[in-house]
Specification:
This protein has 336 residues and is an alpha/beta fold. It is built from ten helices and 15 strands. The longest helix is centred in the middle third of the chain and has 15 residues. It starts with a strand and ends with a strand. The protein binds NADP nicotinamide-adenine-dinucleotide phosphate (NAP).
């Protein structure tokens, strides 16, 4: 038997139960990964609260973890026992552009997630992690890291010297800050907290705006770019931020539509879209091939993900409460 958490009889943080489950075996083409650390994503909160689109209970939540391969089934050549790996967010998206089938099997809803000691996965659904990263650091990569990487480096085609605006200081946004600096871009970070903005500057942010004390942060971003606007907006705020992003972005710029922190839908003025010749790209995480490209860059630059706090496995409910409170900067992890 092994440890796990399950959302059991109904959705909600109150229904997350610590359980014992049978340890899995590796079937043909599978590996078993001993998870050593997980990281939390806002999506995990939404999923546990029943707002993430997953309908089937019970569910082992959490998409993002890292660990070591402890068993391989027949016909597995990609990885071997002892390899340090991350399970991929989309278990069937290996490479190429997205399609419905590739997006159909995310971990942590509807597929069982990594909030359990061991998990059996298709060998194709795991990827090696950079050597210089701890399991906790690597556990931040499959969703938040890869989403920021794909947004800026793949969909955004970010170039040195361009300006990126990252909203807030949560997991995706701090990765966006780090990748953008790695690529030689100028970065503007917004936050509700001056203390977090100071930490963002210490990480390389070139300019910062407190969106609470400066609600018209789009105007401030325009001023910081000489009235031109930013080249890329990493849009994680959703309903309350999208119209500000449309104002802050330059003619011909890109809005990378990722998150819904302040709500799911918003009315927008379509003439702004065509008048500014904007590209709005909606994206969800990425493929294993993109993950491999990101890991190569992280290894080359010896980049370290930013971890706010790590909780022990048994304290996972407290880790989720910590995320819900929104006081974190970067990623929240769980150690197994
Ligand atoms: N499409 C995808 O593939 C994908 C992948 C990952 C995440 N997401 C989504 O992206 C969003 C961020 O995820 P995450 O895991 O990075 O979340 P997170 O770590 O919980 O980020 C929370 C932070 O976002 C900031 N924030 C909250 N409301 C904001 C607002 N109205 N304007 C600006 N910033 C705001 C706050 O930063 P301050 O405290 O600094 O103000 C807050 O601490 C979520 O909606 C998530 O579902 C989507």
């Amino acid at each position: 038997m092994m440890r796990a958490f399950e959302v059991q009889e109904a959705w909600g943080l109150d229904h997350l139960r610590r359980v014992e489950r049978p340890a899995p075996a590796a079937q043909d083409g599978q590996v078993v990964v001993r998870i050593r650390a997980a990281s939390l994503n806002y999506r995990d909160l939404l999923t546990i609260e029943g707002k993430g689109g997953t309908r089937r209970l019970p569910l082992v939540p959490f998409s993002d973890g890292a660990g070591e391969v402890i068993a391989v089934g027949a016909n597995v050549r990609r990885v071997k026992v002892g390899d340090r790996v991350c399970p991929m967010f989309f278990q069937s998206w290996i490479d190429g552009p997205p399609d419905a089938a590739k997006r159909s099997r995310p971990l942590g809803g509807p597929l069982p997630g990594v909030l359990q000691d061991e998990i059996a996965l298709d060998a194709d659904g795991v990827s090696p992690i950079p050597e210089h990263l701890s399991y906790e650091e690597a556990a931040t990569l499959p969703c938040a890291g890869l989403t920021a990487w794909r947004a800026l480096m793949i969909e955004g085609g970010l170039k040195a010297g361009e300006t990126v605006l990252a909203q807030g200081t949560g997991g995706v946004s701090i990765f966006a800050l780090q990748f953008a600096k790695m690529a030689g871009a100028r970065v503007i970070v917004t936050s509700s907290s001056d203390e977090k903005l100071a930490r963002a500057r210490a990480l390389g942010a070139d300019a910062t705006i407190n969106y609470r004390t400066t609600p018209d942060w789009a105007k401030a971003a325009l001023e910081l770019t000489g009235g031109v606007g930013v080249d890329h907006v990493v849009e994680v705020g959703g309903a309350n931020t999208l119209n500000h992003s449309l104002e802050a972005v330059r003619v011909g710029g890109k809005i990378l539509v990722i998150g819904v922190l302040s709500g799911f839908s918003q009315e927008i003025a379509m003439p702004v879209l065509f008048g500014k010749n904007l590209t709005m790209v909606g994206l969800s995480v990425g493929s294993r091939e993109m993950f491999e490209g990101m890991c190569a860059a992280i290894a080359r630059h010896k980049m370290k993900p930013v971890i706010d706090r790590t909780f022990d496995f048994e304290q996972t409910p407290q880790a989720l409460a910590h995320m819900k409170a929104g006081a974190h900067f970067g990623k929240i992890c769980v150690r197994y």
